[in-house]
Amino acid sequence: MVNNKSVQVLPISAYDDNYVWLLRDDHACLVVDPGDAQPVIAYLKEHRLVLKMILITHHHADHVGGIAELIDWCEKQQAELPIVYGPSGEDIPGIDEGLMQGDSLHIQSPACDLMVLDVPGHTAGHIAYFIDTGTTQHVFSGDTLFACGCGRIFEGTPQQMFSSLEKFSQLPPTTLVHAAHEYTLSNIRFALEVEPGNQDLQDWAVRAKALRQAGKPTLPTTIDHELKVNPFLRSHIQAVMARAISHQPGLAKTPLAVFTALRAWKDVFK
């Protein structure tokens, strides 16, 4: 167990709606899913940080596109290159070491303990990183769990995505959720269509809109919060089941069937 109050986690904006998450102390940092190297390099320069590690959740270009450029920059600026970790089940250029469910790392700087979760569905080998700094716990969920939503199922199956989301739901309730995209407002619109009577969701819609209007991210949220407002974690709730069945008459009254119907509905929701 580590105990380092100086560790900070912050988002670096990239592209239109991506976040590259950076975990840092006063001297060193790691980054998660650097699809674009330039904003990361700018932050490293401004704060004079050493990049120790790059963590990749899955193979999509907007998550891996900056690896090579970051390595090239570090080769010129640092005594040692960062280690690049990623899913063992995906072929990603630049990965030094593949990780899978149950793998763990003790990181000296920035001080934290890391545990890997296999969360397939969005892609076949998608992983997430659960990180404990000693004072706070964080999960970097990539494109599997979003604020008030979940990723599209491109390579996996609904059963895989459902099981992956169950893993997130079982994390400590105060775990901070760091998703890779700012999709919250559009996800809330769908969630309200599914569960319009959810007061927690109604309140979150107001707060999230205010955050975005102020130019602030809606992330991180918490696992506890997601369990209250995210329809994809609530397919066992009676009101969510009833709404899914009204949208798709004849639907089996099981959490997996409801989740599958919700994900298909969200795919075409405008």
Task: Looking at this protein, list some descriptive labels.
single chain, 270 residues, alpha/beta, Metallo-beta-lactamase, Chain A, six-stranded mixed beta sheet, 9 helices
Offer a concise description of the structure.
By secondary structure, this protein is α/β, with parallel strands linked by helices. It is built from nine helices and 14 strands. It has a single domain, classed as Metallo-beta-lactamase, Chain A (4-Layer Sandwich).
Approximately what portion of the residues adopt beta-strand conformation?
Answer: 15-25%
How large is the count of helical segments?
9
Averaged pLDDT: 97
**Unreliable sequence segments:** none
CATH architecture: 4-Layer Sandwich
Structural class: alpha/beta
Number of separate domains: 1
- Please describe the biggest sheet, giving its number of strands, its sense, and whether it closes into a barrel: 6 strands, mixed
The radius of gyration is 19 Å
Q: Termini distance?
A: 45 Å
* CATH H-level homologous superfamily name: Ribonuclease Z/Hydroxyacylglutathione hydrolase-like
Q: Give the topology string: H per helix, E per strand.
A: EEEHEHHEEEEEEEEHEHHEHHH
Helix content: 25-40%
Instruction: Give the tally of β-strands.
Output: 14
